[in-house]
Amino acid sequence: MKLNDLPRLATWQHIGVRTGYEVLFTDARAGGCRLRGSTTALEGHTAWSVGYRIDLDPRWHTRQVVAVASTIAGERRVSIRRLPDDQWAVDGLLRPDLNGCVDVDFESSSVTNTVPVHRVEFVPGEPVEAPAVFVRADDLRVHRIQQRYTLTSAGPDGVRFDYESTTFDVACELTFDAAGLILDYPGIAVRHR
């Protein structure tokens, strides 16, 4: 499955559980890729804004993530690093509970689902486990989640996956464009540009 280069700019509208927007800027580099964006939403009676920077190596493995969240309670910041021995550090402290994860997934973002789509060589119909470091939107708490992606179709216009997270008891079909960015994440977001 060959994906196109990421566009320099992409935007989404949050739907369903929250209202708001996400904006992504991409920067391809010889040493990998940088995803830089922000997402702002109102979920129930809670409003939040999360700015993020995700640095990826040439194989789409997460190297480092920095995020800042703003809520009515104030501002929080988190720094997450994947160390050379595949351990993870959050704000400089080792987190053995995150070992085995390759990706970081933000609750606030549709962008982070693109990372395993680029990283893994999927075979149609064969599920792939993709445990991830999960970052909460409102307070940037970090924990591990279990995810599974199964490629259901691939063509020149994009790809579709059956997605499951047993951590949150969620299952849905994710639709991506030819560059591997989410077009439709049911109940979460739709692509605008």
From TrEMBL:
SUPFAM superfamilies, per the entry: PA1994-like
Xref: InterPro entries: Glycolipid-bd_prot_put (IPR009467)
Pfam families: Glycolipid_bind
UniProt name for this protein: Glycolipid-binding family protein
Provenance organism: Cryobacterium arcticum
